[in-house]
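Give me the fold.
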Amino acid sequence: MSEDDLGLPMEPEEFRAAAERIEAAVGGVIVGQREIVRGVLVSMIAGGHVLLEGVPGLGKTTMARAFAAATGLESRRIQFTPDLMPADITGTTVLTQDDAGRNDLRFQPGPVFAGLVLADEINRAAPRTQSALLEAMQERTVTVSNVSHALPEPFVVLATQNPVEMHGTYPLPEAELDRFFMNLLLPFPAEDDLAAMVLRTAGTADLGVEKVADGPLLLRMQALARSVPAARHVVDYAVRLLLALHPERPDATALAREHVRLGPSPRGAQALCLGGQVTALLDGRTNLSFEDVRAVAPAVLRHRLALGFDAERRQISRDDLVRDALERVPEEAP
C-alpha cells in the first residue's frame, strides 16, 4: 500500500492518543494483564503476529475478540482441532455453474481472509494444518491451485496455544514459531484479579468493547513506527544480543552454548528493533534506545530458541537464557 493510500503522515502525539484509546478499550474487559495487552498492541502496530500461551480459561480468546472489536477489524475465528484440514483455513477451488449452465472453477476464500484471525488452540491441530498459515503469515498471500490471492491489510494472526505439556497438543514447528512477532505468556491471575474477573463476567456474554480505531489508522501507526530513527550502535546491540544466543558463535553466552540447540533467526533481530521502535513511540520518544530493545527482548526471542535435551532436566527455561544474555551483552561493542 502506497503513502497516498495511507493519507496524511501521523504525528507522535496522535499515535500515542490512538494507542491509549485501544489499550483502554481492551483493558476495560481484560483484568490484570496490562503487560500482555501492551505486548499485543506493540505486535499489531509492528504488523506482526502474536502467540498467546497459557492454560485454558485465562482469557486468551477474550483478549483477541476485544482487540478485534477495539480496532474495528473484520475478525474470523478458527478453532484448531486434530481433524482440521489446510483447506479449512486457506479456502479451496470449487466447481460452480453459471446461469447459462457453463461450469467454472472459482476460489472460495477460507476464514484466513480477514483483518484479524483468531487461531484458537493452534497446537491442537496436526503440523500439516498448522503449516497452512506459513505463507499467509509471512507473505500476506494464499496460494491455491497455483494462484496467489492477496490477504487484506492490515492482517494480524492472534494465535492461542495451551502449554505443550497438556494432552492432545502438537509442538509448533520452528518455521511457524519464527513467523510470530511475539510470544506472550499469560500468568495465572492473582486473587484480587480473579475475583474481579468473576464479578465482571457474571451474567453477561457481551464484551462491550467500543470501537476506537480502524484499519487505515493502524496502517498509519505502522508507517510511523517504521520511520522511527534507529542509530547504528543500538541496532548493533540488538544484533549482538541475538548472536549471543547462538551456541556455535564464539561470543555466545556460556548458558547458550550449553543449552541452546538452535538460536534465533534474523527475523528476531528485525523484531527486536521494530518492536523497540513501537515501544519508543508509546513511551513518548522518537528514537530507538537500548531500553526499548531490552523491553521487548523476552517476548521477541523466547519462542525463537530451540533448547537442548539437558535444559529440561536442569529446568533451564528460554526466559532464563534471554535474561542471561541481557545481563551479559554490553550496550557498546567491546
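Residues 266-282 form the longest helix (17 residues).
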